[in-house]
Structures are given as structure tokens and as C-alpha cells.
Amino acid sequence: MSEIAELARTTIYRLLRADILSCLLRPGSQIQERELKERFAVSKSPIRDALLKLEEQNLIEILPRKGYRVKPVSLTDARELYDMRLILERECVLRAIEQSDDALRELDLYRVGPESDNLADWIAYNRQFHITIADLCGNARLAAVTRDVIEQFDRLTYTSVSLTGPKGQARFVSEHVAIIDALQQRDRRYALSHAKDHVEDARRVVLGTLENPTIVP
What we know:
CATH superfamily of the largest domain: GntR ligand-binding domain-like
CATH architecture of the largest domain: Up-down Bundle
CATH class of the largest domain: Mainly Alpha
Number of domains: 2
Structural class: mainly alpha
């Protein structure tokens, strides 16, 4: 594969992955090669390569003679992701609490949520808060693995925030503030407790929705 083709494939893959994870391409929506050719102004080859990689990551599925479809989030996927997140974020919180006061003050940016009610803004706010804690852990490999898991949560966050509305958004922020306070006060017990409660609250909403899909808007 030429350098130009590889760059095209990588760019298309990253953009489509971002669209899927942020729910711009919603679970169950179809993807057509013809539309992607027009969007990216490239041949079918880099598009198919990108789609194959997304299929390998379990984000899309092939529909014979129909194209591709964004794969819905399964109950098993959600459970596994929440299990992974609890393990990884616990370690990130424990390590972040050892960072300098200046480093921990970076979290003050997340004491207030987005001004708009736009779901995409809330998903981005939530994602960046958790990624910032991961980046504060002081271990590049741990941070990279945690970031990857957190990014996959965008679709689950979409479900949680869209169902709980403004009250849920306010609760998200208050839970973030509690985690920030505990970290800045270097209180391990409360930092771990608040971080776990935050994940478990979202888990209950999302798993309840996936178990009863008829209530999804």
C-alpha cells in the first residue's frame, strides 16, 4: 500500500470511528460505500480498508448486498466495558492523587458542565474529564489503554444523558465535582468511592436501557 493510500485509509478510519463513538452515526444506521466515496473523494480501496478495520473492532457489521451497519451496543459489550472502566479508572485515580497541586488544578475546568443542552457537547465534556484523570496517572501505557476504553463509552454516555435529561446532566457535574474535591484533598478513600459510584450510577441507567430496549428514544 502506498503512503498516500495508507494516509487516506487512516484518516477515513479515524473520522468514521469518531462519528460512531460520538453517535453522529447512531447504532443501527447503515453506511454505504457510495456515500463515503462522495464524502472523502477517494476510491473504494481505502474506504473498504477502513471499514474492515472498524469491523475488526466490532463497531460495524457487514450486511450482505446491503452495505454496512453501525453495530448496536450489546448488553455483553456494555457489561465488559463497565468492568474494564472500573478496574482502569481505580488505578488512574490512585496514581493521579499523587500528582502535584498544579497538575490536579487542571481538573477545575470540569467543575462546570457545558452551557448548552447539546448532547454532543455533554459527551465531549464527560469524555475529556475522564481522559484528563487518565493522563494524570503518570503511566503512559495505562493512560493510553484507559483513554481507548473511555472513548468507547461515548455511545453509552449518549444513552445515559439522553434518558436522564437536565437532572441527569446536573448529577453528572456534581459527581465530577465530588471526585475533583477528593483528588485535590488527596483523600484516597473518598476519591475511589466517588469514582466507583459515578461509574455505577451510569451503569445502572445504561444496562437498564439495554435490558429494556423499547424505552430507548
